[in-house]
Design goal:
Layout: E1 2-7, H1 27-38, E2 63-65, H2 66-69, H3 76-84, E3 90-94, H4 104-121
Parallel strand pairs: 1-2
Antiparallel strand pairs: 1-3
């Protein structure tokens, strides 16, 4: 896990594991939507999720192009965009994939304003 808003494409023509910006035709729209979410999240907007084992990982403005972060061949986000014209972003909301129940109220507070801002854009 991490704390970042990721946008298409997740796959790249080279399939290099990381570091390839794979720009879609709607790249500016995706960046706009990802920033709408990230800019309202207290951790995501810093671009420094500080996840255990990945303390040096950074994401400018709390967003990333999927393939630039890591290449995913055949992912749903790209499939839905290419074949169904669905504009999806992927939200990584926590360093922990399964946070304890006791942390859920804090996670809600971290994401509430982001979710409302995102819904307003939709």
């Amino acid at each position: 896990g991490s704390v970042v808003a990721s946008y298409p494409y997740d796959d790249s023509p080279t399939h290099r594991p990381t570091g390839v910006y794979s720009k879609s035709a709607d790249d500016e729209v995706f960046k706009y939507l990802a920033k709408a979410y990230a800019s309202h999240h207290p951790i995501m907007r810093t671009g420094k999720p500080n996840c255990p084992g990945e303390e040096g990982e950074t994401f400018p403005d709390g967003i990333t192009n999927g393939a630039q972060w890591y290449d995913v061949e055949g992912g749903m986000q790209d499939y839905n965009y290419v074949w169904a014209n669905c504009f999806e972003i992927t939200l990584e909301l926590s360093c922990c994939k399964y946070p304890p129940t006791s942390e859920l109220p804090k996670e809600w507070e971290n994401n509430r304003e982001s979710l409302l801002a995102f819904i307003e854009k939709v």
